[in-house]
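Weekly structure sync, notes
Attendees: PL (lead), two postdocs, one rotation student
Agenda item 3: pending single-chain targets
PL asked that the sequence for the first pending target be pasted directly into the notes so everyone works from the same version. It is reproduced below exactly as submitted, 92 residues in total.
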Amino acid sequence: MDDATIRRYLSESRLIVLDIVSGGGTCDGDDVARVWAERRTALTSAHAHRLPRIAGQILWQLANMQWIERSDGEWMVTSLGLHARDLACALV
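Predicted structure, written out during the meeting:
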């Protein structure tokens, strides 16, 4: 995946999930949703209710793009995922 393609797929929500996964201990969408909700306390109750499903979908997307992978039951950021995160930092 080249840099132009990576930039096309970068989104704030994908970067949030990448950041959460890079912190370790992420096994599923519920884990991501819990950390996401802790970081974003201003979420509406409707958004917070949908967050586990959203997080699960984003995990699936990131895995399909090979930005994350499963290792010992937890999600881990791949070298491609780290590169995507670095590209996002360079854009800011």
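Discussion points:
- Helices lie at 3-9, 12-22, 29-39, 45-64, 79-91.
- The radius of gyration is 13 Å.
Action: rotation student to compare against the earlier draft before next sync.
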